[in-house]
Amino acid sequence: MDRPATSRDIATGEVGLREFALEDADAVLAILLAAEDYMLAATGYFPEGGDLQSLFYALPDGASLDAKRLLVITSGEAVVGVCDALVGWPAPDVLTTGLFMVGPGQARRGIATRAAAIGLGLARDGGFRSVRASCPRDWEPGQAFLARLGFTRATLDRPTTTNYAVPPRTPAVDAWTLVLPPGEP
Length: 185
Ligand SMILES: CC(C)(COP(=O)(O)OP(=O)(O)OC[C@H]1O[C@@H](n2cnc3c(N)ncnc32)[C@H](O)[C@@H]1OP(=O)(O)O)[C@@H](O)C(=O)NCCC(=O)NCCS
Description:
Helices cover 27% and strands 26% of the residues. By secondary structure, the chain is α+β, with helices and mostly antiparallel strands. The protein has a 7-stranded mixed sheet with strand order 1-2-3-4-5-7-6, sandwiched between helices. Coenzyme A binds next to β4, α4, β5 and α5.
């Protein structure tokens, strides 16, 4: 193949999770643009071209850009998903994920489960005590996915702050938490 693999390629390879690289931009943007329903539920807006850039800079109040990480989920050579995280926020032993998504064309193949297992393993080995995720309220795929991983939803009366500054039109987004078992000594 003489072009970068994208999520439209058939993904049959081993699942991986790695830092975003510049050459991933087209594939990640295509994934964001294809997920209209989810992006609308999560942000209140339809996805558009600037969303990739926003992923680098979107921060909740009080978080530092130094804590921000943008990762891609791979299957073989293809970029099939994206995840952004804040390391050590809102507390030093907490890792918070914002967006976590797999391209619509790759759904229900176990890709997100395997990517999450890698990420949770890295978090545990890095000494983090818990992982916090966010999910639009009543967004069934995300809720089912998080519940299956063992996350529990915080019982909050109102939407919480996630990785994003919450604009007025943003629908309710819940925080979900998973307490990690201790890592290897
Ligand atoms: C949710 C999402 C990450 C799942 O990715 P995936 O690679 O399809 O997930 P998996 O194949 O690993 O599925 C694991 C489990 O999650 C649940 N799940 C996944 N997609 C689901 C859906 N559309 N409806 C209901 N449950 C779903 C199921 O319990 C599934 O297990 P099963 O297939 O054995 O029933 C993906 O659909 C996605 O990116 N959606 C848009 C963004 C999003 O919702 N992100 C999650 C916010 S926390």
